[in-house]
Amino acid sequence: MPKMLKFLDPILVIKLNQLVLKENPTILKPELLGNWNSSLPYLDSIYLQISCIVRSVIKNHYFSDGNKRTAVLVLVSCCREFNLKLPNKNIDNKILEIANNNYSIEKVSFLLFGK
Hints:
By secondary structure, the protein is mainly alpha-helical. Helix content is 57%, strand content 0%. α3 packs antiparallel against α4 (67-81), α3 crosses α6 and α4 (67-81) crosses α5. It is globular and about 35 Å long.
């Protein structure tokens, strides 16, 4: 089982959204929250796993507000946990680009990490 599955569970993502909003989040799709876990074992790099989760938080609109901002915190948290270099330029623009396009996980990984 990839380390990612043990690190990032839905409770942490809810807490990150709460941090973004400075209030208790409204979860719109509780049944989908954490659905990234089913894909992670099939992704062979940590970059693809992180990209899968980031894309999922952005595109699935789990929360009533703050999904893209939460995705940024997910990205930062994952990079810190695994000692990965953070994307250093235009993270906000990259998150918006992911939100506005139907990118594959591989495309998201390349956009965020160049890998």
